[in-house]
Specification:
The protein is built from 4 helices and 9 strands. With 169 residues, it is an alpha+beta fold. A hairpin with a 3-residue loop joins strand 4 and strand 5.
Length: 169
């Protein structure tokens, strides 16, 4: 499904079969008002989302926890193939501007740079969703995994699927 090879020492992968059509999944990934409803595990909330859906465009989210925690960040879209492939990186700001070097030891998600390739494939029963998240070092990958990558991203894609099932009905 993905044309980019997976490196087990640097990459995290989440694959799901979603019981909703690919056009709805694409909307769920690219329309800010929909993204705000599912992008972080509840009870956290995505309070802000900006999407400039073009190479070099901005992907920004602001996520807030119940105790006032905030995780906000701008990323840069690299590639957009409607209803098939969405690539963005936290290593660049919009307009392909390099981010300032980050401290890899502060334990926050802002300290992890990665590139995410989301691939969608239409099936008879819905959509295969594949998130391939590439890191520059094994330590970055391990930190992202220990932060709860599989549980967190798994929870959010389930939230997206449930939301889209309601929209489909």
């Amino acid at each position: 499904m993905s044309t980019t090879p997976i490196d087990a020492k640097l990459d995290l992968v989440l694959k799901r079969e979603l019981a909703v059509p690919v056009d709805l999944v694409w909307r769920g990934l690219t329309e800010p008002e929909i993204v705000k409803q599912w992008f972080c595990p509840k009870p956290w909330q995505t309070t802000e989302c900006r999407i400039d859906l073009r190479p070099g465009g901005e992907f920004y989210t602001n996520m807030q926890g119940l105790n006032g925690e905030v995780h906000a960040g701008a990323s840069c879209f690299l590639e957009i193939v409607p209803q098939e492939r969405l690539v963005w990186t936290t290593s660049l700001l919009p307009g392909y501007r390099p981010k300032s070097p980050l401290s890899a030891d502060n334990g926050s998600c802002e300290s992890i740079n990665f590139t995410c390739i989301i691939t969608l494939k239409e099936t008879e029963s819905g959509t295969v969703y594949l998130a391939h998240v590439m890191h520059s070092t094994p330590d970055q990958m391990k930190a992202h995994e220990e932060m709860g990558f599989h549980e967190g991203w798994g929870t959010t894609i389930t939230q997206l699927e449930e939301l889209l099932k309601q929209e489909k009905a």
